[in-house]
Amino acid sequence: MDGRTRRRFIVGIACLLGAPFSSYATRAPAQEWAVKMFDHTSHDFGSVARGAKVDHTFTIENIYEEPAHIASVRSSCGCTSTKLTRNRLTTWQKAELTASVDTRNFLGQKDTTLTIVFDEPFPAEVQLQLYCYIRSDVVVQPGSVQFGSVRRGESLERDLTISYAGRSDWRIERVLCTNEHVDITLNELGRHLSQVTYALQVKLKPDAPVCYIKDTLTLVTNDDNPRAARVPIEVEGVVASAVTVRPSPLMLGVLQPGVTVTRQVVVHGDTPFRVLEIESDDPRLSTAYNGEAKKVHVIPVSFTAGDDLGQTSSALRIVTDATGADRLSVEIQAMVVGQPARRPKG
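Structure (tokenized):
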């Protein structure tokens, strides 16, 4: 008996015996259980410049007790490639599926269907839709603003060139950016007949907080077509702290009431530092640390599951003496299942 036949046999026997199934996946229609794991199923890039970096990320989260496995990802168009961070997900574990559109070798309207095939816990397919129009008259070099990794407190600049060939009166009227920690400077370099060139300078301010930057600049032009009047440019980078903690979130998996598990978080710094205190409002959590100054601290975190069933989320706050990174936060997630242990009477 192969795996698929055995799984169907077990589910059929359980249904006949009236056995309860805690997972929605065992009761949902054939594809619906898998669709519910995605944060969204379509994205419209709009009109983009030739050469621009164009990608989008879908988040997949296993909301069931059974592990889920992605067997394959297919793209209906050679213009779109994909990257999956992991193909096996335990309870509450997440994966990211990033789709990238080739805007150098393809032009015009490019609509793509991504098909994600699951083989565990049950066979299913989910289709994601992407829509993109790649312009031939606007070219951005380089294709995006890439700051890379920047230490907090530092300032960094990136320069782009925007070229247009078409109308003699074409112009960029303004540049929109919702990130208050980014400054924009736009200058027209030249205009000859139907060709126009702009220089775009993008500056990351030194007051930017520790974060992952994933934003979009929007060039607002005087194009007559409303869909073509706005041209997006991706901005990406990481403002890094002098001290980092991993993993965060800390996933503890599926636990029974009364069970204690211990996992480790690693706190790493560029220079030696001390852990002064570890705080938490959750009495189920306990930790251990010492006051030594060193670059790497390995901190054991213990969690004892209570009688409350379902998903649980807590947080640890790690206080250090590191400059600019005196407080770090770690999210801790677990799933408590099964019947609580009975207490003796009296």
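The helical segments are 3-17, 32-35. The first strand starts at residue 42 and ends at 50.
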